[in-house]
Amino acid sequence: MLFSIRATTLQQPGTKAGSGSDESSGQQSRPTRVMVIGGDGYCGWATSLHLSKKGYEVAIVDNLVRRHFDDQLGLDSLTPIVSIHDRIRRWRSLTEKDINLYIGDVCDFEFLSEAFTSFKPDAVVHFGEQRSAPFSMIDRSRAVYTQQNNVLGTLNVLFAIKEYAEDCHLVKLGTMGEYGTPNIDIEEGYITITHNGRTDTLPYPKQASSFYHLSKVHDSNNIAFTCKAWGIRATDLNQGVVYGVRTAETEMHDELYNRFDYDGVFGTALNRFCVQAAVGHPLTVYGKGGQTRGYLDIRDTVQCVELAIANPAKRGEFRVFNQFTEQFSVNQLASLVTKAGEKLGIEVQTISVPNPRVEAEEHYYNAKHSKLIELGLEPHLLSDSLLDSLLNVAVQFKDRVDTKQIMPSVSWRKIGAKPKTVSA
């Protein structure tokens, strides 16, 4: 498997698998042991710390390939991040809480089996996928890697649950990008339609816009099928664009810092705009700037995951939650960053650049997102104070900005066949 890391660190075997289940009711009581696949990544690291602080026993499973991507493409997080071992040691020294660490690739089923039988999870949070649409569109090699890693890795997780932890609840990170930008309201996973006088509730149609987003669609179909065929319990979190770098836990020490990606491959629009403003570069709006998406704070990501774990799906149930709190167009984000910059004495300009993606630049967008609110989500909305905080982080670390990474470097239309490095 490309980029596979086989070494493992196995710690602290626990109680019997499915220890959080209530077989008499078919429901699952509050899980106590949570495996976070991809726990060294942006969402995974913040989630691992949050769950550990809340009293869950946490195990991180990661092959550390996200760090390898930075080395391969000449990229780096705006915020300095230390090794996963140093992160965990610092967390232990601050909280006296252990986080188990299993280093290996979920596409290696032997490794994954060892991790499952050793840790015996009640819930699995699956962040362990290549998560960048631009990365998947660089060339054939990375398109193949994205689909192979994401789809086959998730299949292995499903088989591991079936074989070793049949009552385990899978909380899988999906993406709002599975839906595309249809000219009707986006429901949460399912839509009820009437056709030729007959009515049925069906999975919402998917219109993925990259090889990455397509991999997520395949994941959703595979998970839904195994819920029906094997009785797996699963929650698919179709997440919007995440912003922010700080949670209550990552603020405890600089060795707990989370990633802040701002480049054209892994950086999201809001992160990129904040860094561009901090270094005096015009904000780069792709095309007309009417592209609208759902957004949420990283603090709400960890809240949503915790809510899904604490309120597990039933056996055989495939739930879909749309995980975001607000909707913005790219132009609206640029305007918000411009105003926040003015408050900090930063003059911010905006330019339109050719859109490297194949997407609608002006479109209808209205997505439903009520299920997590009903479970108790208390959103952190994109206020002036939060934008000030993001800009201040960008200003604090602006000496670490590589200005060669600011402009988009990957084109949907010019995807290559040969593996290439984005920047020298």
End-to-end Cα distance: 25 Å
Q: Total number of β-strand segments?
A: 16
Radius of gyration: 21 Å
Main beta sheet: strand number and arrangement? Answer: 7 strands, parallel
Silhouette: globular
SSE run: EEEHEHHEHEHHEEEHEEHEEHEEHEHH
Report mean pLDDT, rounded to a whole number: 93
Uncertain stretches? 1-19, 21-25
Helix content: 25-40%
Strand content: 15-25%
Number of helices: 12
Strand order of the largest sheet: 5-4-3-6-7-10-14
> Structural class of the secondary structure composition?
alpha/beta
Considering the chains and any ligands shown, give keywords for the structure.
single chain, 424 residues, alpha/beta, seven-stranded parallel beta sheet, three-stranded mixed beta sheet, 12 helices, globular, disordered N terminus, NAD(P)-bd_dom_sf, UDP-sulfoquinovose synthase, chloroplastic, Epimerase_deHydtase
